[in-house]
Amino acid sequence: MALEPSDVQRAAHLARLAMNDADATGYVDDLGRILAMVDQLQEVDTDGVAPLAHPLDTTQRLRADEVTERDQRDHFQRVAPAVENGLYLVPRVVE
Amino acid sequence: MMQWETVIGLEVHVQLATKSKIFSGASTAFGAEPNSQACAVDLGLPGVLPVLNEAAVAMAVKFGLGINAEIPEVSVFDRKNYFYPDLPKGYQTSQMYHPIVGAGEVEISLDDGATKRIRVHHAHLEEDAGKSLHEDYHGMTGIDLNRAGTPLLEIVSEPDMRSAKEAAAYLKAIHAIVTYLGISDGNMAEGSMRCDVNVSVRPKGQEAFGTRAEVKNVNSFRFVERAIAYEVERQIELIEDGGTVVQETRLFDPEADETRSMRTKEEANDYRYFPCPDLLPVVLDRAYVDHLRSTLPELPAEKRARFEGELGLSAYDASVLASSRAMAEYFEAVKDACGDAKQAANWVQGELSGALNRESLSIEQSPVSAKQLGELITRVLDDTINGKAAKQVFQALWNGEGDSADAIIDAKGLKQVTDSGAIEAMIDQVIADSPVQVAQYRDAEPDKRGKMIGYFVGQVMKASRGTANPQQVNALLKEKLDQA
């Protein structure tokens, strides 16, 4: 699959990465080589092979439903740029 | 005039009643100080790792078993990527490709007592996001992350509903199942159950579905019906005016009673799901699932069938009484106390429900306990009091004027007079005091007399202060009036 600079810009926008056109053109080549490798992998016959969700051959451990965390709000909020009434303040978002 | 058919599917988000969050040990208690229950994992701080809560898994599996769904051996968590300030990690941990609960079905009961099966496509576990507060913080938005990481079970139905009423009945059925199972408090006002509705219309008889709109923020049984009614009308008008329905997300505004298009950016639905590398596949062995199956209580559909089949209640009564766990338990306790299912059903749905509705109380808040009501019904059944006195006793129990039906019956002197000598004496007195009415009665054609006797019954009941046995009064009056 051939990448266009607009594909790279779109992926960058979804990841909230700022990118100028020169960079985008460069990534067309870099990402293009990765996709070429994926295309090569696609040629392998995987019929009857279950998709792998995780490289480790083990399963999820479960924890007991217990409250183990205490309130550390003041500690966490020391690194926040703006807080008020216990809330984190962020630039206004209105949908 | 074109006949239209409505097609509805629901996505119901149920907050699971765990003590701690799905991936962290922070508390899920409702109403805490902002951000006092948001730990490093919930905040998405660098270096933290999620550990899955066993109770959330167990609750999801119980739901699956409760709707006869397939429980796959392996389920996998995926990341749903999007940016929003109340989602600090930049992704929601959810299950896209291998959900914990497979296809199942839910039986709904309709107003006429009929039932219909609605297929559930799947149900998956995910984490809730935080809350954004848009009131003015100097032009900024306030973020409370206490809710972030609260376990949700998202239950996705097939598009099997054909009316707003069916959709509301489905939502009620889900509510009943999760509260019966004790996996959620089902409190819609606090957001423990939230609902998105997919609505489309198609000409009757057409097989292909029309284009659907997804309506968000439909968070009460009433709103479901209203949002669908508005949306169906909007879509039909649009099509009949030559327009086309566009696939979009709309928001229900309960105050304006309408749905509005949400301005969504074009990439809004590009979530780039991929398996979460921080979480391993969840494997449920058969013994674990079988153990959970053995803990399931009797569920609403089974209860409804038992109430109808074994207890001989009508389909309607059985469905109302089985609709909530609290209602069913109250009814069964009344029935056990008085030994008469039909009387218990009548009282719970009549006098008690009427009083609860008048004062906007739930059955859990009833001032009259099931035991008290059962004892009251027992006294009606053994003829200690008549129906009229029973209502007085109920009112007195409701007002807290006594601890038991017997105490109130004694205190108020409501014991029914069944001594025919005493009743006869009262009747003789009434007849002696009402010569005009007696003469009219005796002059009347026999077929008119039935109505006229009501006057005398009323007088005798009044003389007995309501305690005479009405059937006895009727019979004795008829005998005495007709004998002259």
From TrEMBL, chain A:
Enzyme Commission number(s) from the entry? 6.3.5.-
Reply yes or no: does the keyword Transferase apply: yes
Reactions it catalyzes: L-aspartyl-tRNA(Asn) + L-glutamine + ATP + H2O = L-asparaginyl-tRNA(Asn) + L-glutamate + ADP + phosphate + 2 H(+); L-glutamyl-tRNA(Gln) + L-glutamine + ATP + H2O = L-glutaminyl-tRNA(Gln) + L-glutamate + ADP + phosphate + H(+)
Q: A GO molecular function for this record?
A: ATP binding
Q: What enzyme category does the UniProt record give?
A: ligase
Q: Which domain of life is it from?
A: Bacteria
Q: Which GO terms describe its biological process?
A: glutaminyl-tRNAGln biosynthesis via transamidation; regulation of translational fidelity; translation
Q: Which UniProt keywords apply?
A: ATP-binding, Ligase, Nucleotide-binding, Protein biosynthesis, Transferase
Would I find Nucleotide-binding among this entry's keywords?
Answer: yes
Q: Which InterPro entries match?
A: Asp/Glu-ADT_sf_sub_c, GatC
NCBIfam families found in the cross-reference section: gatC
- UniProt record similarity statement: Belongs to the GatC family.
What is the annotated role of this protein in its UniProt record?
Answer: Allows the formation of correctly charged Asn-tRNA(Asn) or Gln-tRNA(Gln) through the transamidation of misacylated Asp-tRNA(Asn) or Glu-tRNA(Gln) in organisms which lack either or both of asparaginyl-tRNA or glutaminyl-tRNA synthetases. The reaction takes place in the presence of glutamine and ATP through an activated phospho-Asp-tRNA(Asn) or phospho-Glu-tRNA(Gln).
HAMAP family (alphabetical): GatC
Assembly mode: Heterotrimer of A, B and C subunits.
Could you identify this protein by its name? Aspartyl/glutamyl-tRNA(Asn/Gln) amidotransferase subunit C
TrEMBL record, chain B:
- For this protein, what is any one GO molecular function term? glutaminyl-tRNA synthase (glutamine-hydrolyzing) activity
Q: How does it assemble?
A: Heterotrimer of A, B and C subunits.
Q: What is this protein called?
A: Aspartyl/glutamyl-tRNA(Asn/Gln) amidotransferase subunit B
Q: Keywords for this entry? A: ATP-binding, Ligase, Nucleotide-binding, Protein biosynthesis, Transferase
Q: Which residues form the Asn/Gln amidotransferase domain?
A: 329-481
The organism of origin for this protein: Franzmannia pantelleriensis
Q: What does this protein do?
A: Allows the formation of correctly charged Asn-tRNA(Asn) or Gln-tRNA(Gln) through the transamidation of misacylated Asp-tRNA(Asn) or Glu-tRNA(Gln) in organisms which lack either or both of asparaginyl-tRNA or glutaminyl-tRNA synthetases. The reaction takes place in the presence of glutamine and ATP through an activated phospho-Asp-tRNA(Asn) or phospho-Glu-tRNA(Gln).
Its EC number is 6.3.5.-
Q: Which InterPro entries match?
A: Asn/Gln-tRNA_amidoTrfase_suB/E, Asn/Gln-tRNA_Trfase_suB/E_cat, Asn/Gln_amidotransferase, Asn/Gln_tRNA_amidoTrase-B-like, GatB, GatB_C_1, GatB_Yqey_C_2, Gln-tRNA_amidoTrfase_suB_CS
Q: Pfam families, alphabetically?
A: GatB_N, GatB_Yqey
Q: Which GO terms describe its biological process?
A: glutaminyl-tRNAGln biosynthesis via transamidation; translation
Question: Which family is it part of?
Answer: Belongs to the GatB/GatE family. GatB subfamily.
Which reaction does this enzyme catalyse, per its entry?
L-aspartyl-tRNA(Asn) + L-glutamine + ATP + H2O = L-asparaginyl-tRNA(Asn) + L-glutamate + ADP + phosphate + 2 H(+); L-glutamyl-tRNA(Gln) + L-glutamine + ATP + H2O = L-glutaminyl-tRNA(Gln) + L-glutamate + ADP + phosphate + H(+)
